[in-house]
Amino acid sequence: MAHRVLVVDDQKGVRRLLEELFKKEGYEVNVAVDGKDSVEKVKAYPPDIVLMDMKMPNMNGLEASQEIIKFDQTIPIIMMTAYGEMEVVQKALEVGVKKYITKPFDIIDLRNMVREVLNS
Ligand SMILES: [Mg+2]
Asked: Which residues make up the environment of ion ligand 1, defined by Cβ < 5 Å?
């Protein structure tokens, strides 16, 4: 069965890019438009991995990650941050976010990171 990826980003272009990439890789992909939406989608249909943007309206990536980890700490989360957000990245790692990648990133690096997390 295909691994389920939940892509969370408030930017439509990023959602579309990552959705296309991971579908092409053979994953089942769902998207969420903000933190609140991501928590609802995780609870309704738990994914195998979450790709979480940091800056979003209606609950940012850190708060959403905390809620998701509270719901099920076995779901790995990769945080997608912008340059200069190290403080919040640190907090995210402390609450249990697995890895982070800094925007703008090479999608091949993200693809490899997802593979590595799912295979570990
Ligand atoms: Mg954003």
From this structure: 10, 53, 55-56
**Over the stretch 33-73, which tens digit does the pLDDT of each residue have?**
999 999 999 999 999 999 999 999 999 999 999 999 999 99
Burial of 97 (0-12, 13-18, 19+ CB in 10 A): buried
Ligand 1 centroid distance, CA of 9 (Å): 6
CA angle 58, 72, 87 (to 5 degrees): 55
Q: How far is the CA of 1 from the centre of ligand 1 (A)?
A: 30
What domains can be seen in the chain, in order of their start residue?
A: 4-119 (3.40.50.2300)
Q: How far is the centre of ligand 1, averaged over its atoms, from the C-alpha of 17 (Å)?
A: 14
d(CA 106, CA 70) in angstroms, rounded, equals: 30
